[in-house]
Specification:
The chain has about 350 residues and is α+β, with helices and mostly antiparallel strands. It contains eleven helices and seven strands. It has two domains: about 270 residues, Beta Polymerase, domain 2; about 60 residues. A hairpin with a 2-residue loop joins strand 1 and strand 2.
Amino acid sequence: MAHPSETGAEPFPDDRAEVPPPRTRVWRDGTLEKHDFPVAQVSDYLEEDGTVVWVDLCAPQRADLRVISDELGLDPVAVEDAVSRHERAKIDRYEGYAFLNVYVPRIEDGELALDEVSAFLAERALVTVRQGPGFDIEALVKRWDESPGVDIASTGAGYLLYHLLDLVVDRQLDAVQALDDEADDVESMIFDESSPMRDIQRRSFRLRKNLVALRRVALPMREVVNTLLRRDLRMVAPDLVPYLQDVYDHTLRVGEWTDSLRDLVANLLDTRIALQGNRMNEVMKKVTSWAAIIAVPTAVTGFYGQNVPYPGFSSHAGFIVSSIVIVVCSVALYAVFKFRDWL
């Protein structure tokens, strides 16, 4: 089974000059108060009442996380998971906060790319850690700014996390929809005799590999969302439960969709093998039929080649008779084979 790195997002460039700076936001009583302030001020804002803080780090090193770790008192094990690549999709609970790791899929030139995103969730703080720039953080910020219905002042950082998970699952649905369209194209190619067999095999293998990779990162999302929904853990505000339940339903849909597509691709491969066998049988019938047709003149000329007397021996009329026998028998066999659809 392929590791997420084999179909995941490309490693972030080593050139640290290309790494975007940390992004920060603070809401007070549900209203955005300030953004892009120094990370070292996070604890100062959290000491004030009615504030919710967000910090985003892109491709950080351990030193980059040291500041926010000191500000929020993060466990070194959680920090290690945040900077390590290719952690499995999961959620871990620590004292006073939770750590979760998810993957955001995208289709690029038919290949599935996976952007790894980690998050630290406290009561009034959310820290997102992206392993690369592939994940569109602006889409998440836009959701926060334009989505009504939930008061951030009453739900805290859980409101921010809900939109993050909702965006992740939506991207997974987009990816599985794209793979579904690809499956339709492969199905059309299989029943199109003009399609090169090598292209069908290549696209079928790529589709199956993408589905396996997507399923591996999508199925654990059920556990992540289900853990947040557990009332005994009280990780999110009760007002968010209906919204997270909707996200959970979408995770189930992604899992069921990927499973059905895997079965479809397997059936398509079986169908392709069956069609290949049928085509081979058709070819063999045609070759055998033509061989039978050619055998008639061969038998006639071979028999007469024994140089024994026969009607018309050593005369022009004998040559005409033998030629007529060859043509009549060959045409008769052709008509019989054509009638039986062997040709």
